[in-house]
Amino acid sequence: MIIKPRIKGFVCITSHPAGCMENVRQQAELASQLSFPEGKGPKKVLVIGSSTGYGLSSRISAAFSNNAATLGVSFEREPKEGKPGSAGHYNVSAFQKLAHSKGLVAEDINGDAFSNECKEEVIKKAKEMGGGFDLVIYSLASPRRTDPTDGQVYRACLKPIGMIYKNKTLDTDRAEVKEVTIDPANDSEIAHTEKVMGGEDWALWTRRLVDEDLLAEGCINLAYSYVGPEVTRPIYRNGTIGRAKAHLEEVGKELNLAMQNACGGNAYVSVNKAVVTQASSAIPVVPLYVSMLFKVMHELGTHEGCIEQTNRLFQDRLFGESSSLDLDSAGRIRLDDWEMADQVQQKIMELWPKVDTSNLMDITNFKEYQQEFLRLFGFGIDGVDYEQDVDPVNPF
Ligand code: NAD
To answer: Which residue CA neighbors atom 14 of ligand 1 most closely?
Structure first.
């Protein structure tokens, strides 16, 4: 079939296998340029949330910089005859193909990582791989979670807490800057969001891996968080999702002690920069901020996407010759240091009041945002022939 993008709001309901392959290939090429001192890089890596965004790039950084064996966990839609699978599905297949062609071990489980069944399947596969994970990355982003203890479904929401939030936002379909007003979350919505995106599930994963003795001596167990700028603070860091991230960060401190006791390892939270992913495109105000951020960081020569971030994490913070964790006062790794630099944030504060529909294309890089969004689904990538017939079920 010929596959074209079909965008509905902040998702694209189709995806292109050849474009996803090219996406993964390009990221692998960047990762292969890293180098670590003998014996320092990751050798066996578990990535929970491995098919798109930061989880995918983390896995690519590990596999293609250091030939790490990887086990990926994700929740993706399989293709059917005449109906493409999700982008994450093709990313996983593309990753497997490229990794196997280099002789690397790459195993995957497609399932609901919040469920006990999925955890048991992963444990089984991890044992078959001989255990000994020296790096675990927890990179789930999900709008809902079914609690495995009682079957209750929790839904995350993106709302401010204790205040009505009014700000500019971007209608990405119409390229229009508009005003958005979001009512505050109630207590139940706050609690539900924490259940989904807080640290509870990360702790459950860690406990299972420790109990099954699947972690190598000195293993690093890492989850991702975000802080962000003044303009998104009420909807992000001080909102429901920020409350959940604060919970994740607190849980990280407990897990750090548990890791030290269990295997002489550590648990950290890395605060990453804002990038275009399926998760971030759903957050009000963020697409406008990211479009502006692209412009400002390109001008300063500090622009990064997921793979540049995870490569820098590996090279400068975790495994490189002169790497240093450089933790902040709350004990977090700050990969968002370039985003949060004064020079960048002052420029954002200067541009934010001025941006409207008429100057959107001049004072932000909205075009690049749109291209990046399409790329997530394998579209708009140079060198891919989108007129060519593809088999959505067995594309590679
Ligand atoms: P993403 O949407 O690109 O990826 C989410 C991943 O989670 C996918 O692999 C998906 O398959 C998997 N997933 C979702 N629900 C699942 C389930 N029930 N079972 C198994 N897998 C499931 O998201 P992302 O933006 O890369 O976010 C990953 C992490 O990075 C999140 O913790 C997020 O808060 C953090 N982060 C993101 C940004 C950003 O700007 N995107 C910035 C800083 C930190």
So the answer is: 142
Question: So what's the pLDDT on residue 273?
Answer: 98
Give the position, in ligand 1's atom list, of the atom nearest the Cα of 223.
Answer: 32
Measure CA of the first residue to CA of the last residue in the chain; give whole Å.
Answer: 14
Q: How close is the Cα of 55 to the center of ligand 1, in Å?
A: 7
- Regarding the beta carbon of 65 and ligand 1, being less than 6 Å apart is answered no
Residue 114 beta carbon below 6 angstroms from any ligand 1 atom: yes
Pocket of ligand 1 contains residue 372 by CB under 6 Å? no
CATH topology of domain 7-159+189-283+303-336: Rossmann fold (3.40.50)
What is the value of pTM for the model shown?
Answer: 0.98
Summarize pLDDT for 325-342 with one digit per residue, the tens: 999 999 999 999 999 999
Which residue ranges make up each domain of the chain?
A: 7-159+189-283+303-336
* Residue numbers annotated as active site: 236
**Smallest CA separation from ligand 1 atom 38, residue:** 274
Query: What are the b/e assignments for 133-149, b being 16+ CB within 10 Å?
Result: bbbbbbbbbbeebeebe
Pairing of strands 106-110, 176-182: unpaired
Would you say the CB of residue 287 lies under 6 angstroms from ligand 1?
Answer: no
Alpha helices in 223-300 (DSSP H): 240-263, 286-300
Residue pair 223/271 in contact by the 8 Å Cβ criterion: no
Token reading at 60: 């690519």
